Every structure is written in C-alpha cells, then in structure tokens.
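Anyone opening a protein record will find just a pair of labelled lines. The record below illustrates this layout.
***
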Amino acid sequence: MIILVLNSGSSSVKYQLLDMNKNTLMASGLVERIGDKAGETTHRRMPGTPQEQVFSREQNIPDHSTALDLVVKLVTGEQTGVIKDISSISGVGHRIVHGGEAFSAPTLVDQAVVQGIRDQIPLAPLHNPGGLAGIETAQRLMPGIPNVAVFDTAFHQTMPAEAYRYAIPAGLYKELKVRRYGFHGTSHLYVAKQCARVLNQELENTTCITVHLGNGCSMAAVKNGRCVDTSMGLTPLAGLVMGTRSGDVDPALHSFLADNKGLSIREIDSLLNKQSGLKGLCGDSDMRDIHHRIASGDKEAELALKIFCRRVTQYIGQYMAILESTQAICFTAGIGENDSKVRQLSCATLSGIGVKLDPERNRQRAAGQTLEISSRESQVKVLVIPTNEELEIAIQTAQVLS
C-alpha cells in the first residue's frame, strides 16, 4: 500500500510518499512560497538511502493546484519519480490542523467532511484553508483515489471536561466552542506509541508525558494511552515558551497593552504570536543561536534559556501530579531530540519527584534513534524519541483505508 502524505499550509505543501508494505520512505519534498513568482521546490528521491537524489527548482507557483500538480509530476517523473503513475497510490493522507469537536479520529473524506473542516475555519483561520485546498486539489487531480483527513487536535479529544473547559461563562462554550483543544496531536500519539514499545507493553497500559519542543512547543499528559491534558489551548499560543510565541501570560495583558500602548487586539495577537517567546526575550528564536550567544557570555540569551526550561519543568510537575504514576517522560522534535542542555535544565530540579538524568547518556546524540537518558536510580524513565508525524499520518490513513 503506497500512501501520499500532504501537509498543506497557507503558502507551502510538504509531502512524503511511503510504501507501507515495505515500511520505506520513497520520496519527500517541500513546495514553498506558493503565490510568489519565485516559488521554490525541493524534492528528494529515495531519501535516507545511498541512492538518494535531490532535485531543486525555482518557478512561479501561483496556487495549491499548481503545487500539487508539480508534486504528482515529481513522484511519477522519469528522472525524479519512484512510481509509474498515480494509480499506484492507494490513498492520500492530509494533515488538518483543527478538527474542533467534530472530529476525534482520522476520517475518510467526503463532502460532509469537507464541510465539517470548513466549519472549523473560525478556530484555525490561518491553517484549515490550506488543508482544505490540499484536499480539494487532490480530489481534482487524482480522481478515484481516496483521501483521509488526519487531525492535529484529534488525539486530545479524550481529555475530560475538567481539563478542556475554561472558567469563563458557559454560554461562550455552548455558542462558540471556546475550550482547550491542543495541537501537535499526531506527534504526541506517535511518540506515546514509541514509548509503549520501549516499555515493552501495549499503548493502553502506557502512562507518560510527551514533550514536543521545536519552534512550536507543546506537552501532553497521556494516561493509559489516552490524552488527559495538554499545554496548548484554544489556539497554539498557550502553554510553553516557543520560538516566537509567548506561551502562557496573564490574560489581562491584552487590556493592559491596549490601555498603555494603544495597541489593537490584532496588534497584540501578532505581538504574542510573532514577536514574543525566545525572540521577544533575547532577539533570537533559534535555540542554536541562543546557545552560541550564551557561550560568549550573553546574559539575555542565558535568561531566555532559563525561562524556556523553567516552563517545561513546571508542566512536567503539573502533569506528574495529574497522572499519579508516570512511567516515562519523552522528549521529541528539533530541540527535544537534539538539545541536551535543554533536557538537563528541564529535569534539573525534578529529583524530588523521582526524575533523574544520567549526564553521560543525556549528552549522546539521538541520530534518529530512541535513547534512554535517565539514570539507574530514576523512578521515571526519561527518553529521547524522534517524532515522525508524516509516518503517523500514513499509518492512520492506511488503517482507515483497510
């Protein structure tokens, strides 16, 4: 079974073509700057193998239809392709950011599902339109090939009401569905499954904390394989400190800035999403640049790192209290997988609740492999687990089609 995975954003399309029977990645790529005359495409044939070939080009890509048509030509092309034609594709899996309360599992796409995704646009105005464009374009260019929507919010739909409801007038929930939804759910589920494998048990018996740290950051408390709490909220702005997002702030900050700086709600929203987080604290949003600055004695960068890690520590402690008994803490994504200093600082004060790292193990590079970095004395395993959201989307797509 060959699955094409599409992650369609507002101005880009990421894709992977996977052979699920052989468990191999056949091709991957990125079409970006859609709508720009200088659109860019990078296509990798047989990535991660000795036969890997990389093809890059610049051209005008006016819309998603042009972008996806280009993807089809690349995966079937004489020089760039890995399949003869699109009839080899069993299904297309789409990453959809927001499913609201309407979708709690991967879903075979029909017109009712398309409308359901469209209904969630007020909750994700920047993301769901791109996902819809990917679905509608795939239906037009690849007629007869089934499409499956995989929702970033779905894994978190198992949260109890006491976790997802906000203490605001109930009418706002009933009318507008204002509540905690959470994101990165596909990543959190994949990592929880890998954690279960490391622990040599079923997912249904696994209780862990998944820590997704990249440019966007979120955490999930997973009890017996089901999400019971997560750090992001109605939007991806809540929770941890991120590259350019503030994470949790006093809700009254909006009125304070409006009164004292004359900022509009839109301007405040932009400030908290695009100018805050690590970038707001020290001017850099990339953790690698922050480490370089710390090495040269930069105090602003050092403070930004401490604030970032302190928030992770706070959420780990909070989730361990909710879970009662935690089997593992799993770090993943770009920072979580590669930054030993962030992991060390995030766990430095947790020995009192049974979490202790092995410094030497923690310094090892994951290199795509799962690592156990906790000490023998630690009552809770600490793991580094590389995430693979595209593979999880392909797995869920194949399950729906089967």
About this structure: The first strand starts at residue 2 and ends at 8.
